């Protein structure tokens, strides 16, 4: 649907494996920019599986966004959507681990550092990497 940004500031950080984590701390961080997609119910269920909703990697929560700066004619209203946030079990700790400093968006250069699943240790899942990252 295009480039959008959050109405309120939120922390966005890179965690282990250069995976991005949006932290549910409204009022902290930046107004985060990202891409907005419209998906079917079936696709949403698959995304939930990919993001590890059932195992506590992420949570899908409501958030308010507007068309990103420079992408609009200026008259766009806020839209209620959902986004994947770091699970509440570790989100704030991830924010602290990053020195309470976040990004405005997950850039192409950030994405180049991302470690694909096929290149990760076979015996570890994302939850394991998160625990190890927070303990280091």
UniProtKB/TrEMBL annotation:
**What InterPro entries does the annotation carry?**
AIG2-like_dom, GGACT, GGCT-like, GGCT-like_sf
One GO molecular-function annotation for this sequence? Answer: acyltransferase activity
In terms of Pfam families, this protein maps to: GGACT
Record GO cellular component, one term: cytosol
Task: Name the active site residues.
Answer: 51 (proton acceptor)
Q: Which UniProt keywords apply?
A: Acyltransferase, Lyase, Transferase
Q: Which Gene3D superfamilies match?
A: Gamma-glutamyl cyclotransferase-like
**Domain Gamma-glutamylcyclotransferase AIG2-like span(s) in chain numbering:** 5-88
Provide the function of this protein: Putative gamma-glutamylcyclotransferase.
> Could you say which protein family the record assigns here?
Belongs to the gamma-glutamylcyclotransferase family.
* Protein name, UniProt field: Gamma-glutamylcyclotransferase family protein
């Amino acid at each position: 649907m295009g480039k959008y940004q959050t109405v309120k500031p939120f922390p966005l950080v890179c965690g282990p494996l250069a995976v991005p984590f949006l932290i549910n701390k409204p009022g902290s961080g930046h107004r985060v920019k990202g891409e907005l997609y419209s998906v079917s119910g079936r696709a949403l269920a698959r995304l939930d599986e990919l993001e590890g909703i059932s195992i506590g990697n992420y949570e899908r929560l409501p958030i308010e966004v507007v068309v990103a700066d420079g992408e609009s004619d200026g008259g766009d209203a806020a839209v209620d959507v959902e986004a994947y946030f770091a699970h509440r079990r570790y989100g704030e700790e991830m924010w602290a681990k990053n020195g309470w400093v976040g990004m405005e968006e997950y850039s192409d250069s950030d994405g180049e550092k991302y470690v694909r699943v096929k290149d990760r240790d076979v015996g570890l899942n994302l939850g394991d990497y998160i625990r190890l990252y927070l303990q280091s």
